[in-house]
Amino acid sequence: MPDVSDFILKLQRRRIEGSHATARQTAELLRSVVSQTRMPYTNQAAALLDAVRAVGEQLIAANPVELAVGNIVRRVLHIIREEDLSSSAVSFEGLMISEKSDDEDDADHKGGPVLSAAAVAAAARSTLRPRSLQTLLEDGPLPAAPSKSSSAGDSEGKSKSDKSAVGKRLKHSVIEAINLLIEEIDDCYEDISEQAVEHIHQNEVILTLGRSKTVKEFLYAAKQKNRSFRVFVAEGAPRYQGHVLAKELIQKGLETTVITDSAIFAMISRVNMVIVGAHAIMANGGVIAPVGMNMLALAAQRHAVPFVVVAGSHKLCPLYPHNPEVLLNELKSPSDLIDFGEFSDCMDFGAHGGAPLMHVVNPTFDYVPPNLVSLFITDTGGHNAAHMYKLIADYYSADDLVIKRKSTSSN
Amino acid sequence: MDLRRPNRPVIGPKVRQVGFVTPDSAAATSSSSIPAVSAAAAASAGSPPSSLSPVMIPPPRHPSTEMSNPHFHPVGSYNPSEQILGSPPALSPSRSSRFDADGSDFGGDDDESVALSGVGGGMTPKSSLLMCQPVTKTAPLVSETRKRDSNASKGKGEGPSAAPKEKLTKAERRATQEAQRAAKAAAKEAAAAGGAPSVSKQPKPATKPATQQKKDIPSGSGPLQPLAPSGSIEKKQGKKEVAAPHPRMQFDDMTKVGKLKKRAVVNQSEARNRVELFRHLPQYEHGTQLPDLESKFFQLDLIHPSVYQVGLQFLSDKISGGNARCIAMLLAFKEVIQDYTTPPEKTLTRDLGAKVGSCVSFLIECRPLSVSMGNAIRFLKNRISSLPHNLSDKEAKSRLQSDIDRFINEKIIIASKAIVEHGVSKIRDGDVLLTYGSPSVVESIFAYAHGIKKNFRVVVVDSRPKHEGQGLLRRLVERGIHCTYTHLNAVSYVMHEVTRVFLGASSVLSNGTVYSRVGTACVAMVAHAFRVPVLVCCEAYKFHERVQLDSICSNELGDPDAISKVSGRKDLNYLDGWAQNENIQLLNLKYDATPSDYVSVLVTEQGMLPPTSVPVIIREYGIERLWT
Q1: Which of A92, A368, B170, B193 has the highest CB neighbour number within 10 Å of its CB?
Q2: Do A295 and B482 count as a contact with CB atoms less than 8 A apart?
Q3: Residue spans with biased composition (Low complexity) (chain B) (predicted)?
Q4: Minimum mean pLDDT among A114-123, A342-351, B337-346, B549-558: which range?
Q5: Considering chain A, what is the average pLDDT of its residues?
Q6: Can you list the positions of beta strands (E) in A31-146?
Q7: Which of B486, B522, B574 is opposite residue A243, by nearest beta carbon?
Q8: What distances in angstroms separate CA A228 from CA A205, A220, A245, A258, B274, one per listed residue?
């Protein structure tokens, strides 16, 4: 597929910047992949899963550091599973056991022999998710409100039971759900910034580092509610995106002070809250964020300043980090730090027996451990770092966590 | 020993209060082989007998003195002949081995940092081991003091009589006091015959010499009378030694700023869009006044050209770094003294002091003084005011010049050599050493360690806007040291592999706070979080009795335009024309304050100390400041 190779090339060359853009484009690409997949007569869901997984694996390999790609691939896989379950539940109306839900979860429902299709769907959904407070409530005797992502398929999925029709319907509802996902990615700023007034007070002093669109919208929203507050922006070397953010903020009339990154520790004692964006949120509540964030988080901890991370749910990553500073990092060109040519003689690999005397390290990301984060604000509300794994369990199914192994075993 | 024991707890704390203030007490110290004990004795004996009772018997202090006593035990047993330069054998091995042990595994390291910071209580054996180093230093110094004291011949004759006093019974002490009293009376008579000199006994320079001296200039015509009261006040401050340092100039005080403006040579214009939080600090438009000043160069009346030149170099940032600035200033003052002739009907001590004061205030206008410079000025003024009055101009000038040379040599050059020797003992083969900015002492430590074929790697962390690290990087690479260069934000990325952090300091304050180039606190904090030992290298002449908790109360503001422009990055022009917008301020801080718990050890020429014993050093060092 030309789209896919094109997108892979873009990822490899780091043409796509920012997890929002990446997430959105990945979702769009996967939508087209789903729509182009030929549906066999049997086991259609598996065919879709395989197709998405094959593409997803390539995408992740193209830029393993951009975790949003993997997140979206897993979200789409999860959507396919859910849609498959709900549609199969519809098609085998009256049957107790659907072919997919062979887990022990059915034991929970032995009390009610006659279940509505929606209840079966709910039960089936719970097989995908681990047991949590939320799913417990959904599992009640009433067919409670089905979850957001699958509602589109649910509402009109009751009438038909023909196999081929189900096949079409599956594809259709998956595409519908992916559209919803894209919408969700686009709307995450609004959902997050709605909560701004609850967190930003009058006369507060807020510190942020670098530039994040989420943070910007968050601050705008508070400003629109006539809160007057002051913002310190650390410039965020070596990309200096803080300058851009400062410029955007003053256009909205926010009082802004630009400080160097080195002045973070000096200034943080006068700051009420640190609000930053993230690159990705890991399952343990740790944050992959632009470089310098760990230093900021440590300084905030030292002065007991709340460290708040705002991020859309597409940045939630179901993986646990292992040595993330190295494995989930990317080293950029030294030319950000030193003028090209100024030290080129020292970095010559030929001069000193193959090993130059001088190295320049220019990492892109920092890992902030969960104990340094006071609060996560996502589009579903505020969360504690320790709660992140539950939140993640709502978005991803456990079977998809490792995409590579699955695909190699199926190949 | 048994006889003395009951006495010591009583005298203990008074050592610190009065022991080193009067010249006779210091002189007494010199003759003793056991510095601390003798100092204690001197405190009791050396003070003028008329004010005997308040000094000698401080009964309510009992419990606390028992507490502080353990400090002195190892001190006494320590060999005072051991010099600073020779790496102290008793101290080094044990400490370095402990240090070595912790480098490899982080758990042990944590232990150590806790132990070091716990020294504030002063109870750990380590602390006492550390403390002995500074105290021993006093012995050689004091002998010098004594020489000068006899030179000064200021009507205080008990220097020699107070000398042999370390082992005292009550009777003995009483006898010596009698003798002193007699000597003192005799000396007073002599002084009365001498007339004026007794009035102007060493007015101790204040912490803000500039403002003080400024006031003095107009009143300089009447040589002695107008100054006597202020001198005596200052003297009192010196005597108390616990006197709080002068409050600094606050630039949000409009009346004072107005006064300052009237006198100013450099007419700096206030920068726009000031940060509200830093109203109390001066911030000027940079670069605007430089051409104007340069054109004024040939029409100077008050300020010596060499001082003027140095001032302009400060202003344009051509000279930066604590040591470099201090040396440049002192050399300029040397030239001032060289070209000085005492005007008719004036005395050298008064007039030269005023002249130096006006030079200092010019330098302050160019750039606020660093603590090191402040201390050097204090030293110089003290030397000027304590010159004997019977010296000829030529003699006085040559003596002052040699004093300045000695200060530069002892306090800066030899001190940094001693620091290098101490610092190198903490570098092992295979170490990865991190440094931030471009501290001159740390650079020479690395150079020396490389010179003695230690195998290590250096991580140079740098930050905007000055990028001083690049210069250091260049020099280290030219020496053939393996270097890694990165920016401050990436410090937690590189900290994993680092085994030691070497930092420089602009000054170390009395509560252990390290006041240094902005960003140092960040590096120390990350190192602390990663359990990497932080060594702060700092000459003891940069210590100051001020205290500070944050970086906001006292700081220096740099050029805000340096923030909007990123060197070498033409594409970053988002903040061009920022001054037109009311809502934006750019803040370019120059210093920050590192809390003392981030510092594992302070490397000074007096040895390696925990930051909590800085006040001890300041107290010990106080004598030097007074009498060298």
Answers
A1: A368
A2: no
A3: 25-54, 87-96, 177-196
A4: A114-123
A5: 81
A6: none
A7: B574
A8: 10, 11, 18, 18, 19
Q: Are A281 and A367 in contact (CB under 8 A)?
A: no
Residues of A in contact with B474 (CB under 8 A): 343, 346
From chain A, pick out residues whose CB is under 8 angstroms from the CB of B480: 357
Q: Nearest C-alpha of chain B: how many angstroms from A24?
A: 27
Residue range A131-151, pLDDT digits in tens = 555 555 555 444 444 444 444
The residues, any chain, with a CB within 8 Å of residue B369's CB and separated by 6 or more, are B210, B360, B363, B377
- Facing residues of A367 across strands? A288
Which has the closest alpha carbon to A82: A406, A411, A394? A394
Give the whole-angstrom CA distance, residue B193 versus residue B82: 44
Q: Cα(B473)–Cα(B476) distance, rounded to whole angstroms?
A: 5
Q: How far is CA B503 from the centre of its chain?
A: 17
Per DSSP, the three-state class of A300 is helix
- What token pair was written down for B201? 């006994």
Tokens representing A156? 């009109």
Question: What is the spatial distance between Cα B501 and Cα B442, in angstroms, rounded to a whole number?
Answer: 10
Q: How many CB atoms lie within 10 A of CB A279?
A: 24
Flag if B494 and A253 touch (Cβ within 8 Å): no
Which chain B residues contact residue A295 at CB under 8 A? 488-489, 491-492, 522, 525-526
- Would you state the pLDDT for residue A144? 41
Tokens representing B617 are 């050093």
Asked if B492 lies within 8 A of A343 by C-beta distance, the reply is: no
- Longest CA span, chain B: 84
CB environment A98-109: b (16+ within 10 A), e (fewer): beebeeebbeeb
Q: Which residue of A has its CA nearest to B563?
A: A260
What is the maximum span of chain A, computed from C-alpha positions, in angstroms?
A: 80
Give the chain B residue whose CA is nearest to the CA of A361. Answer: B486
Cβ-Cβ contacts under 8 Å, A361 against chain B: 484-486, 490, 493-494
Residue B94 phi, psi (nearest 5): -65, -40
Q: pLDDT at position B271, please?
A: 66
Contact list, B481 vs chain A (CB under 8 Å): 357
> What does the pLDDT read at residue B624?
59
Q: What is the mean pLDDT of residues A393-411?
A: 69
Q: Is the four-CA dihedral B179, B184, B187, B193 of positive or negative sign?
A: negative
Pairing of strands A381-383, A280-281: unpaired
**CA–CA dist B90, B81 (Å, integer):** 13
Q: B431-436 and B456-462 as β-strands: parallel, antiparallel, unpaired?
A: parallel
The phi, psi pair for B509, rounded to 5°, reads -95, 170
Distance CA B442, CA B416 (A): 9
A266 vs B contacts (CB less than 8 Å): 518, 521, 550-552, 555, 589, 591-593
List of chain B residues whose C-beta atoms are within 8 Å of the C-beta of residue A270: 277, 552
pLDDT tens readout for residues B190-227: 555 444 443 344 444 433 443 444 344 333 333 333 33
Residue from A230, A239, A254, A262 to probe the interface with B (highest B Cβ count within 10 Å) = A262
With beta carbons less than 8 A apart as the criterion, state whether A408 and A400 touch: no
Rounded (10°) CA dihedral B168, B173, B176, B181: 150
Q: What DSSP designation does B151 have?
A: H
Ranges of beta strands (E only) in B577-628 are: 584-587, 591-594, 601-604, 607-609
- Average pLDDT in the B582-596 region? 91
- Which residue of A253, A263, A294 is in closest CB contact with B587? A263
Look at residue B164 in the predicted model and tell me its pLDDT.
45
| Pick from B480, B433, B440, B479: nearest CA to B460 | B433
- The number of C-alpha atoms within 13 Å of A394 and in the hemisphere containing its C-beta is 19
For residue A228, give how far its alpha carbon lies from the nearest alpha carbon of chain B (Å): 12
